[in-house]
Task: structure prediction
Amino acid sequence: MPDVNMSVELAGVTLKNPVVVASGTFGFGREYSRFYDLGELGGICAKGLTLHPRTGNPAPRIAETPMGILNSVGLENPGVDAFIREELPFLRQFDTKVIANISGNTPEEYGIMCEKLSAAGVDMIEVNISCPNVKAGGLAYGTRPELAAEVTEEAKKHASGVPVMVKLSPNVTDITEIARAVEGAGADALSLINTIRGMRIDVNTRRPVLKMNTGGLSGPAVLPVAVRMVWEVSQAVSLPILGMGGVSRGEDGAQLMLAGASAVAVGTALFADPFAPLRVRDGLAGIAAKQGLAAVSELTGGVRPW
Ligand SMILES: Cc1cc2nc3c(=O)[nH]c(=O)nc-3n(C[C@H](O)[C@H](O)[C@H](O)COP(=O)(O)O)c2cc1C
Result:
């Protein structure tokens, strides 16, 4: 098979291949580094960080579903300072791009974290707006365009030129409305989708299977929703997109790229197979070669809608 150029651009950052690992599913890479050189990956979205350490939600907080999982982990993390001190130097040993993922309770918290992380030298900051906020009465920033824009502006103001990628929630009526607001506020890229809210009940105990009652659905079950949303968003804005949601094979990643994504992330598939991102990468290379493409980036936006 002819050699395919696997590198892609995401908000001015060159990834050696289009496969990134999704935030919260790869920790800070330590466990996975025992399986392969993390430099094989296009990039690593680190576990979601908050300004202060968090212990997360009470267990049970992960449950299986048909073709997916429900989780209510609740952003367990050591806090942004411990990440910079203890985890970033570890990740920096590998020839890959490091993307820090942040969640805040207020726009100011996002700003403070961006300042710290850009000074510490991450390659990109992924702003998770799918978390609740205090200021606007507990609604998620990602469900209201004006709040999503406010957080984006604050992040950009403090990121000192490090590209800001805003991660969109699928739990909205019209995702393009949020995408446009975030683009207008100066985001450099978008990532989507985060998990879809769901619930499972044990019929014998009549208890929800998760202690928090509801959780976020991810895994193969959500792929068609992700493909649809990436397609809609790619037509609504001109920002590059990191597509994710249910990717476990090259063909899944190719669907997201054809729908408009410049790169893709693998999340839940890692729990069944730590090598899933490498399988997706090789699968994408095979699809591109079979279609006679010189570069995998030629897949982006290539869908031919009826
Ligand atoms: C256990 C778990 C923890 C997650 N933690 C985060 C997080 O900290 N920040 C974030 O932006 N997304 C988080 N996500 C969402 C994933 O990054 C991803 O958007 C979602 O799971 C869809 O991709 P997948 O189907 O390949 O897992 C988490 C997902 C799972 C399953």
Remarks:
- The domain at 8-299 is CATH 3.20.20.70 (TIM Barrel).
- Residues 22-25, 47-48, 69, 71, 73, 75, 101, 128, 167, 194-195, 218-219, 222, 244-247, 266-269 surround flavin mononucleotide (CB under 6 Å).
- The longest strand covers residues 97-102.
- Helices lie at 80-91, 107-120, 145-158, 175-184, 223-236, 250-259, 269-272, 276-290.
